[in-house]
Specification:
0% strand; elongated; mainly alpha; Tetracycline Repressor, domain 2
Length: 196
Amino acid sequence: MPRKPAHTPESLIEDAMHHFWHYGYAGSSMDDLVRSTGVSRHGIYKDAGSKRDLYLAGFQTYQDTVIDPSFAAVEAEGANLVDIEAYFEAQIALAEAIGLPGPGCHMANAMTETAPHDPDVRQAVSAHNQRLRRGFDNALKPQSSYIRDAERQAIAEWLVIAAQGYWSLSRIIDDGDILRAHVATLMNLLKAKLNG
């Protein structure tokens, strides 16, 4: 009777995603992936295809397991500034739990490492950033009735840029309260703008 594999394609993708998140694409050889996932080269090729295929597949897993839990509230009907602030706090707490300095944001890492020369990665990063922008815009609407739509959307884009900056900063600092102080400044500026 053939032995049941110790992994599934889904667990392989998730384990590899964590490895790429911490070490990047260029810093991850097939031997590294075999060691970190516990899956043989044959198993990786059979279940996921190439190293690049495995890397690309991990972006959806990252959305499902890291982004959804903290960002879904920002996207929900009735979201507001409290939900935006809670999203930032949830991601800071996650960074602290992983350990600071940490791996930052997997999508921000891809944006600087692989997206400039890989159109599929660029598309995945762009979709991620568009999701953040739409979510922030959604949460801004209840408190920005007196400003133009274009201005509100520009603020949402600014929040995306700020978020990517914070998660990049988390790669070189060892204290989550530094991030909290930056988020507090951001939120104070945002509230002042929205309150006229």
